[in-house]
Amino acid sequence: MASVLQNKLVTLCLLALLCFVSTAESTRKGASVPKPCRPNTANIKDFGAVGDGKTSNTAAFKKAVAELAKKGGGMLVIPPGKWLTGPFNLTSHFTLFLDKGAVILASTDMKDYPLIAPLKSYGRGRDEPGPRYSNFIFGSNLTDVVITGNNGTIDGQGQMWWDKYHADQLKYTRGYLFELMYSDNILVSNVTFVNSPSWNLHPVYCKNVIFSGVTVLAPTDSPNTDGIDPDSCTEVRIEDCYVVSGDDCIAIKSGWDEYGIAVAMPSQNISVRRLTCISPTSAVIALGSEMSGGIQNIRIEDVTAINSESGIRIKSGVGRGGFVKNIFLRDMKLYTIKWLFWMTSNYGQHPDDKFDPKALPEVTGINYSNVYAENATMVARLDGLQNDHYKGICISNVTAKMIPSDLPLWNCTNVEGVSNHVTPKPCDLLRDQGPSGKPCAFPTATLAIDKVPITQCPF
Ligand SMILES: *[C@@H]1O[C@H](CO)[C@@H](O)[C@H](O)[C@H]1NC(C)=O
Ligand SMILES: *[C@@H]1O[C@H](CO)[C@@H](O)[C@H](O)[C@H]1NC(C)=O
Ligand SMILES: *[C@@H]1O[C@H](CO)[C@@H](O)[C@H](O)[C@H]1NC(C)=O
Ligand SMILES: *[C@@H]1O[C@H](CO)[C@@H](O)[C@H](O)[C@H]1NC(C)=O
Ligand SMILES: *[C@@H]1O[C@H](CO)[C@@H](O)[C@H](O)[C@H]1NC(C)=O
Ligand SMILES: *[C@@H]1O[C@H](CO)[C@@H](O)[C@H](O)[C@H]1NC(C)=O
Ligand SMILES: *[C@@H]1O[C@H](CO)[C@@H](O)[C@H](O)[C@H]1NC(C)=O
Ligand SMILES: *[C@@H]1O[C@H](CO)[C@@H](O)[C@H](O)[C@H]1NC(C)=O
Ligand SMILES: *[C@@H]1O[C@H](CO)[C@@H](O)[C@H](O)[C@H]1NC(C)=O
After folding, report:
1. Residue range 401-456, pLDDT digits in tens
2. Are 438 and 395 in contact (CB under 8 A)?
3. Which ligand is nearest to the CA of 80?
4. Residue 453 confidence (pLDDT)
5. 246: which DSSP letter?
6. Which residues are catalytic, by number?
7. Whether 336 contacts 308, CB under 8 Å
8. What is the distance between the alpha carbons of residues 337 and 403, in angstroms, rounded to a whole number?
């Protein structure tokens, strides 16, 4: 293994900025500089694991992480093979490295999935009231966590969960394939996630998170298999990812109705770039519907989608409260799309009947530019609320080639904004500024997380 590691294995040093931040902190505390390149390395085989796809390796995974945790962290290498296991938790200063041909298979025995508490900002499980089944790979209150490798695979074997979900046989909410909660300095790169029971990648209440070169694949008819869902997170970068999903490719969230309002942790300072998406029944990029803690300062650029339902969709409703503001999108190409742009103010779906009907979302400062679509059904459906208009919308340089349809090209209600250089001609509520109209601005200053280089370091 050591030679494999030396030759092939170039794993990722954490983020210079994050190193810098922790260094500064450690220096203050007089501790040593963190070593993201992990001096301690262990192989899952050292813990008796068998990669035959049949033997349950739950004990081996738990022991491996616990042993490394005792040493203050380290790297766990998963070699080629099929490593079946129940859910397991990660630790801090830890790298999970999946070599080429390594597949971690999630157990399909429901007894392996303990119940865990619902998220505070949701008040209950997303599918069902009460607790939820454990996520497959999970961690809470961690720092400096990396999942990477030579594009190995984490397979949730979700079919069992999807079947039970469709047959209404689940008493509790399905787990996510990977969830980190209250954690910071996270890197997920060069790894493939497939067949999640529900959402794939779910950082929640996290800070400084990078997803780079990640592939997420789920059947396009699988229920709620969102790709990457930053939820109440700050400083997140999603780049060079490829997502095929039965739901949204990327969904930025921040809690649900009165629970999200009480927790009040926005999702903010997030950049998504060079995304490729297939999501025939849902959005390429969704903001919400759970947005009660607020969503702000989001930059999305260089997105290509094939066969998706909406290009960018803001989902909200009465009772959500919160805000969606300062949202910037540019350079999106959509091939076969129902709506390029969709804003919904009547999404429904409440955790319970205790939501405040006066809690209305504030949606403002939305700039979309340089969007090209072929085989589009409608350009946009933009619905604000009568007593809560969605405002400050700017749409520029859009060309949509439409398929014949009886539906209107634009359907706008209770929205206010401007447009220019948009074909087909926008609805009147987006006042056309004519040929001299200015492009909708995109921020020039980069986010802190954008400046973080991903360096590779040999072991
Ligand atoms: C993971 O940690 C959580 C607490 O953060 C705990 O409830 C859960 O049982 C642990 N899961 C496993 C599989 O050990
Ligand atoms: C994890 O962090 C949250 C937020 O800081 C805190 O409320 C919680 O007590 C922490 N949990 C543990 C187990 O340390
Ligand atoms: C990602 O994995 C592929 C496939 O093994 C490998 O060729 C490539 O070098 C890896 N890239 C990075 C950045 O580690
Ligand atoms: C990783 O594997 C997935 C699934 O096989 C593939 O679609 C993707 O192109 C691979 N990525 C890299 C960097 O090799
Ligand atoms: C978000 O980014 C802006 C720069 O665009 C910065 O001024 C602000 O401090 C950041 N917010 C947080 C919470 O990091
Ligand atoms: C308009 O958008 C297209 C992509 O659809 C892009 O190629 C072009 O450069 C943009 N024009 C301007 C003036 O930004
Ligand atoms: C155009 O979109 C329709 C569905 O909206 C689809 O059936 C058809 O295959 C698409 N055509 C092309 C060329 O992508
Ligand atoms: C247009 O928008 C209105 C208000 O949201 C809605 O009731 C109607 O169904 C929409 N029509 C189409 C064709 O989308
Ligand atoms: C969107 O672009 C327009 C035109 O450049 C600009 O006036 C507006 O301030 C921009 N919106 C935001 C939220 O920056």
Report:
1. 999 999 999 999 999 999 999 999 999 999 999 999 999 999 999 999 999 988 66
2. no
3. 3
4. 84
5. S
6. 247
7. yes
8. 10
Distance 118 CA to ligand 1 centre (A): 13
Segment 259-265 shows an average pLDDT of: 98
CB-based contact 86:105 (threshold 8 Å): no
Residues spanned by the domain of 199: 2-456
pTM of the model: 0.93
Task: Say which ligand is closest to the CA of 420.
Answer: 9
Cβ of 408 closer than 6 Å to ligand 8, yes or no, is: yes
Using CA atoms, how far residue 206 sits from 97, 230, 270, 328, 387, in Å, is 21, 8, 12, 22, 34
Domain count, the chain: 1
* 447, 298 Cβ separation under 8 angstroms: no
Q: 77 pLDDT exceeds 80?
A: yes
Q: Which of 457, 458, 455, 443 is nearest to 18 (CA)?
A: 455
Nearest CA to ligand 6 atom 3: 370
- The per-residue DSSP string of 102-134 comes to EEEEEP--GGG--EEPPPTTTSS-SSSSS-EEP
**CATH number of the domain where residue 249 is located:** 2.160.20.10
Is 140 close to ligand 4, i.e. is its CB under 6 Å away? Answer: no
Is pLDDT above 60 for 23?
no
Q: Which residue from 138, 140, 176 has its CB within 8 A of the most atoms of ligand 1, so it is best to mutate? A: 138
Placement of tokens 């080639």 in the chain = 401
Tell me, rounded to whole angstroms, the distance of Cα 346 from its chain centroid.
Answer: 23
Task: State the closest ligand 5 atom to the C-alpha of 443, by its place in the atom list counted from 1.
Answer: 5
- Ligand 9 center–CA 257 separation, angstroms: 29
Atom nearest to 370 CA in ligand 6:
2
Residue nearest to atom 5 of ligand 3 (CA): 150
- Decide: 313 and 283 in contact? Cβ < 8 Å: yes
